[in-house]
Amino acid sequence: MLKDRAVGIMGGTFDPIHFGHLVIAEGARVQFNLDEILFVPSGSPPHKERESISPAAQRYRMTVLATQDNPHFHVSRLEVDRPGPSYAVDTVRTLRDLYTKETDLYFITGADAILQILSWKDVGDMISMCKLVAATRPGYSLDGLEEIILKVRKEHKED
Fold first, then answer.
1. Which residue of 12, 18, 38, 80 has the lowest C-beta tally within 10 Å?
2. 133 three-state secondary structure
3. What is the DSSP letter of 66?
């Protein structure tokens, strides 16, 4: 177990992983002074059940290859090896148990995904276990983001 660290969790389908993912991860690492970024390719993303995606093992290997040159980047098989749908809250729960309470966890996702946060599984648990980092992405409107954040804070008593 690691103590007094700040760890970014970058989840995603990564089909394929691309330069944008790496730039977002490195930007979050620098901006939030994170010790490492843990890339977690989803095993079975529930929001993409009707889409055709590459096998999880292939997406994991692509992620390993794409991140190998950055010493702050690591890749986890957590979701790839876990059966059933891959929910962010389950991954954060597992990582929360692996790291000490003194470790700050930052879940990095696209701002477009944050717009859907009220539909996430156990969102209250999620925001109690980690900090959320919303990265902007070209082509996605952030209209309504402030309203969603206020709703989440109100519903889950976050200031």
1. 18
2. strand
3. H
